[in-house]
UniProtKB/TrEMBL annotation:
InterPro entries: ConA-like_dom_sf (IPR013320), Kinase-like_dom_sf (IPR011009), L-type_Lectin-RKs (IPR050528), Legume_lectin_dom (IPR001220), Prot_kinase_dom (IPR000719), Ser-Thr/Tyr_kinase_cat_dom (IPR001245). It is a single-pass type I membrane protein. It comes from Anisodus tanguticus. It is found in: Membrane. The keyword Transmembrane applies. The keyword DNA damage does not apply. This is Protein kinase domain-containing protein. GO terms for molecular function: ATP binding; carbohydrate binding; protein kinase activity. One of its GO terms (cellular component) is membrane. SUPFAM superfamilies: Concanavalin A-like lectins/glucanases (SSF49899), Protein kinase-like (PK-like) (SSF56112). Keywords: ATP-binding, Lectin, Membrane, Nucleotide-binding, Receptor, Signal, Transmembrane, Transmembrane helix.
């Protein structure tokens, strides 16, 4: 494989020189894992593999366990390619040719046509995308787009589709399409017009040529071996500029839906040419700068000499005057019997670090919450009301206002409670929501947190949207890391649940809404013993919620989640708990392994419940997971460390 690469500079420093062409060439005569550069130059995502038997990239992986329905994958060249010249707003010109073959397997998922021919789906795309990590959706999306991508996600694709989806404007089940930032094709072409049946098992070759200056594209398709003289299936004007970043990634995506087929990419050549402007070298030399700097420094030193002498003389005179004044002041003080009070200057406060938690006044809190307006309320429970607030500096925060009756009912001592708030406010970790401060004015107890814009995990799990498995598993690991850090500080969260886990703008999980912790020195012996193990138990239940996509609280007539999980374990059908809304782009083995870890966390403390450090080792596959008991425990946990009372999952035996 030959690769030549030149990175053009798009900055505006220096005068602009001549325009040159930047060329990038990629060549894969076949795809074989023995090629050492293949692993470095090709990124495989989702259900994509390199087959040594076929010397091809295959999507989906035909050796994958289970059926091949609803799978998606991508094969992307690992390095970005310059596709757009920003100064001239000119897209790159490129030419690519590749050969592909669709294999329709005989299985229960595929139908047979009236003439006895197997019907498969869905299709393959040649794609230009802005990143090398996203996997698109399966089915008619062809692995090209994902519903979690931004609306302005820039992508260009040429699709080869073997399923007709009228909702996307497909003309038939044997067509090509040009897709610009959308799954709906800008232009669709019937492949039968050039005598090609995409999924007949033959090897087909594609030629795509794009002239960036003229904004003109030409696409040719024919059985492999016929050559470039094949008839053009589409040619016409096409401006790719709105759908390109300066640097993009190029490759292939494919997917299956209710019907399946194996998409083989057998060879691939790609060449791009983009224009770039060179900068004219400056006439200024380094030696000129050195000589100028030396002359300037000498001149400055010459000018400074007399000034330095006068400054020194002034300092000496001032020092003598101060010493004389101190001497006479001391002398007068010894002879003076007056009882005058000496007023010391006001002590100046040291500046506070900008991110350090501080005490807020009730006036600041009232202003930020618009006098605790109902319109600012985010939620409430039996112990507090939570508000969204905007501080005077424009920063959005969350204000949690504890109710007075909460302290009276549960017998909490406010002084100890305030110490606990200050203790947790000192903890900093990437997966913990920072506490920005507190307020104890007018008998109030208020805690101020950072505001997390994507909201809490329960809204994503049980709401309208569907989190993909990769992000769910990342949430599990983030939550585990945060609890390990807390426990290492001899603290516990004491309120672990999906509504206490928040997702930031990059969908990293951060844990907040603490049930407020007790240090081992400030708690009873029993409390310090159970608080961290209670966190482990509740972590296990949250893991089950993440996998199943349903709340721990059962709806009327519905079996509760923990009871159901253990029942499925007993009959060895744990995979049925995995949230089906995620589709088939799920690592089922990883999901079942995580479910085992969740169940392990709900064992009795003296019957195998792990520590959070061990849980992280299990998740990272650094340590084998102990075997679960064949049946469910008789009683899960006989104490709730939050209230000291038996309630809910913390102590309810199985029915």
């Amino acid at each position: 494989m030959l690769v030549s690469n030149f990175v053009a500079s798009s900055d505006n420093k220096g005068p602009i020189g001549p325009v040159i062409n930047v060329t990038k060439h990629i060549s894969f005569q076949d795809f074989n894992s023995n090629n050492l550069r293949l692993k470095q130059d090709l990124t495989l995502l989702g259900s994509a593999i390199v087959s040594d038997e076929k010397t091809s990239v295959q999507i989906p992986d035909p050796e994958q366990q289970g059926d091949l329905k609803h799978l998606a994958g991508r094969a992307i060249y690992s390095s970005p390619i310059r596709f757009f010249d920003l100064p001239s707003q000119t897209p790159a010109s490129f030419e690519t040719t590749f050969s592909f073959q669709f294999e329709v397997k005989s299985n229960s998922s595929n139908e047979t046509s009236d003439v006895g021919k197997l019907i498969g789906g869905s299709g393959l795309t040649f794609i230009i995308v802005p990143d090398e990590i996203t996997v698109g959706r399966s089915g008619p999306w062809l692995g090209m787009l994902n519903d979690l991508c931004d609306d302005d996600y820039k992508t260009v694709a040429i699709e080869f589709d073997t399923r007709q989806n009228p909702e996307f404007g497909d003309p038939n089940d044997n067509h090509l399409g040009i897709n610009l930032g959308s799954i709906v094709s800008t232009a669709a072409i019937n492949a039968s017009d050039v005598g090609v049946q995409l999924n007949d098992g033959s090897i087909h070759r594609v030629w795509i040529s794009y002239d960036g200056r003229k904004r003109f594209i030409d696409i040719r398709l024919a059985p492999d071996g016929r050559g470039f003289t094949s008839k053009s299936v589409y040619s016409g004007s096409l401006d790719l500029s709105p759908y390109l970043n300066e640097y993009m990634f190029v490759g292939f995506s494919a997917a299956t839906g209710n019907h399946t087929q194996i998409h083989n990419i057998l060879s691939w050549n790609f060449t791009s040419i983009s224009q770039a402007s060179l900068r004219i070298p400056t006439t200024e030399t380094c030696q000129d700068k050195i000589m100028l700097q030396n002359n300037t420094q000498a001149e400055i030193a010459h000018r400074k000499t007399p000034n330095s002498f006068f400054i020194f003389l002034a300092v000496v005179i001032l020092l003598v005057i101060v010493l004389i004044n101190l001497y006479f002041s001391s002398y007068r003080g010894d002879d003076d019997n007056s009882n005058e009070t000496i007023i010391l200057p006001e002590k100046k406060q040291r500046p506070r670090p900008p991110n350090k938690a501080r005490r807020f006044t009730i006036a600041e809190i009232a202003t930020a919450t618009r006098n605790f307006s109902e319109l600012q309320i985010l939620g409430s429970d039996e112990k507090s009301v939570t508000y969204k607030a905007t501080m005077l500096n424009g920063c959005n925060v969350v204000v949690k206002r504890f109710l007075t009756q909460f302290f009276n009912t549960h017998g909490f001592e406010k002084r100890q409670f305030h110490k606990e708030i200050k203790a947790i406010s000192k903890i900093r970790h990437p997966n913990l929501v920072p506490i920005r401060g507190w307020c104890y004015d007018n008998q109030e107890t208020i805690v101020v947190y950072d505001y997390i814009p994507n909201g809490s995990l329960d809204k994503w799990l049980f709401g309208v949207g569907v989190l993909p498995w990769t992000r769910r598993f990342k949430v599990v690991k983030d939550l585990a890391e945060s609890l390990v850090h807390l426990h290492s500080k001899q603290l516990a969260h004491k309120n672990v649940k999906s509504s206490s886990v928040f997702l930031d703008v990059s969908f990293r999980a951060v844990v907040g809404d603490f049930g407020f912790v007790l240090t081992s020195t400030g708690s009873t012996r029993f409390e310090s013993m159970v608080s961290q193990t209670a966190d482990v138990f509740e972590f296990g239940v949250v893991v089950l919620e993440i996998i199943a996509g349903r709340s721990r609280k059962s709806n009327p007539g519905e079996r509760d989640l923990l009871d159901l999980a253990w029942a499925m374990h007993e009959v060895q059908q744990k995979e049925t708990l995995v949230d089906r809304r995620m589709g088939a782009v799920v690592n089922l083995d990883q999901a079942v392994r995580a479910l085992d870890i969740g169940l392990l966390c709900t064992l009795n403390e003296n019957k195998g419940r792990p520590t959070m450090e061990e849980v992280v080792e299990f998740l990272n596959m650094e340590k084998p997971i102990p075997e679960l008991p064949p049946g469910r425990p008789v009683c899960l946990f006989p104490y709730s460390s939050t209230t000291g009372l038996c309630s809910g999952y913390a102590c309810t035996a199985f029915k």
